[in-house]
Amino acid sequence: MKPRDAYAAFVIWVVLTALGEAFVLRANIYPLAGNEFARDVDDAFRLLMALAVPVFTFVVTVLVYSLLRFRRNGEPAEDGPPIHSHRGAVWGWFAVTSGLTLLVMVHPGFTGLLELRESRHQEMVVAVQAAQWSWNFTFPGRSELEKVKDLKLPTDTKIRFDVTSRDVVHSFWLPMYRMKIDAVPGRVNSVYVATEEAVSYGENVNVRVQCAELCGTGHPRMQVRVEVVERPEFDAWLAEQEAG
Ligand SMILES: [Cu+2]
User: Fold this and answer.
1) How far does residue 213's CA lie from ligand 1's centre (Å)?
2) How many A from CA of 171 to the centre of ligand 1?
3) Which of 83, 58, 47, 235 is nearest to 155 (CA)?
4) pLDDT tens column, 13-44
5) Contact in structure between 168 and 132 (CB atoms under 8 Å)
6) 175 Cα to the center of ligand 1, angstroms
7) Residue-wise pLDDT tens digits, 177-220
8) Are residues 159 and 137 in contact, defined by beta-carbon separation less than 8 angstroms?
9) What distance in angstroms lies between residue 91's CA and the mean position of ligand 1's atoms?
10) Residue 16: strand, helix, or coil
């Protein structure tokens, strides 16, 4: 490979990386974020994407450039000259990628987990039972609400959902809070969610509970429209459910 090729490939890599980073950092590809935790998750995702872009564009550049530039075009092929690795490049690559990997394991990985653990105190416990193909919810001191299609939750409340299943494995997913947990028959899995401001399914389709584990023909319709409302409205709704 001539220096000219290395230079050309380098320029293409830089341009592709700039385009990729502009897209990753600026494009709004994230669904509605309903709380602080969701924003943290999005930040972590954005960081990992930003780190992955240069690696991806490097591989693509070298691959496509080599394919186009070094074609044999029907000439008879013989063995190329032996290739020796460049010690400095190998160690440099190893140091940089390992360093970055350790860095993201510590932050946002480890620090994020600590933050998550700290937020594990709840003001309300809601029992959730999944079934083919519906969701049942039991609020504290209330009887079970069956086959719920519309659910209300109070604003600014830390909720623990105790999730289980009646039949097969389902998955309890709240996309706007970036929270998902398996609903497994015979065991209870807990997930912690802190609601913030009022929002409804009518405003954004991510304000819902969705089954995220293929569980049969009714799987895609296994969803609950959620509305996060002020506490008095929530209490009134709950009382109304009980009466009906
Ligand atoms: Cu399901």
Assistant:
1) 6
2) 6
3) 235
4) 999 999 999 999 888 889 999 998 899 899 98
5) yes
6) 15
7) 999 999 999 999 999 999 999 999 999 999 999 999 999 999 99
8) no
9) 48
10) helix
| Domain assignments of the chain as residue spans, ordered by start | 3-67+98-118, 124-243
pTM: 0.82
Burial of 220 (C-beta count, 10 Å sphere; 0-12/13-18/19+): exposed
* Block residue for tokens 């394991």: 105
Ligand 1 centroid to 219 CA: how many Å?
5
- Does domain 124-243 sit in CATH 3.30.420.40? no
Compute the radius of gyration of the chain from its Cα atoms: 25
Separation of CA 4 and ligand 1 centre (Å):
57
Distance 204 CA to ligand 1 centre (A): 22
128 CA distance to ligand 1 centroid (A)?
A: 12
Cα angle 207, 160, 170 (rounded to 5 degrees) comes to 65
Which secondary-structure segment (H or E) carries 191?
strand 189-194
Q: How far is the CA of 89 from the centre of ligand 1 (A)?
A: 49
19 C-alpha vs ligand 1 centroid, how far in Å? 39
